[in-house]
Amino acid sequence: MTDPDFLERIDGHMSRGNEMMNSVREELRLSREESLRSRESHDELRIYMREQSLRNERFTQDLMNGFRAFLSEHSAAARAVADELRDLRAESRARREALLRMLDRLGPGPASA
After folding, report:
1. How wide is the angle at C-alpha 83 spanned by C-alphas 81 and 87, nearest 5°?
2. For residue 17, which of 25, 53, 87 has the smallest C-alpha distance?
3. Centroid of chain to Cα 103
4. pLDDT bracket for residue 111 (50, 70, 90)
5. DSSP 24
6. Rounded to 5 degrees, what angle do the CA atoms 54, 55, 57 make?
7. Terminal Cα distance for the chain, rounded
8. Cα dist. 21→30, 33, 86 in Å?
9. Cα dist from 63 to 53, 67, 74, 109, 111, whole Å
10. How far apart are CA 50 and CA 55, in angstroms?
11. CA atoms within 13 A on the CB side of 54
12. pLDDT tens-digit readout, 53-104
């Protein structure tokens, strides 16, 4: 093998090595860009998920507050109806007892003779 042939072969290998190195550099550059986009996307997703979580918390809190208000309002109405019924029963009982006392004072009627 002569020196010019040997040097030519080495130049060919070096040229191929340089092409491969340029290809590796390009892939590395693309990989860095993709990594940066991925990080940015991850950050955006994290912010979005945080916002959604806060919205869900507010919605749930508002829903629970509304439910409590509904229960409170309707519980008060139910208590008022129950109190009214209790008063009506007491009044009915008092009238019945008064009527029975009046009947007792009148004594037995002519039908019992």
Report:
1. 115
2. 25
3. 67
4. low
5. H
6. 65
7. 156
8. 14, 18, 94
9. 15, 6, 16, 67, 69
10. 9
11. 6
12. 999 999 999 999 999 999 888 888 888 899 999 999 999 999 999 999 998 8
Tokens of 17: 């090595």
What type of residue sits at position 97? Answer: E
Task: Tell me the C-alpha distance between 92 and 98, whole Å.
Answer: 10
Instruction: Tally the residues of the chain.
Output: 113
Q: What is the CA radius of gyration of the chain?
A: 48
Q: What is the pTM of this model?
A: 0.46
Domain ranges of the chain: 3-104
Q: How far apart are CA 28 and CA 33, in angstroms?
A: 9
The two structure tokens encoding residue 46: 């994290």
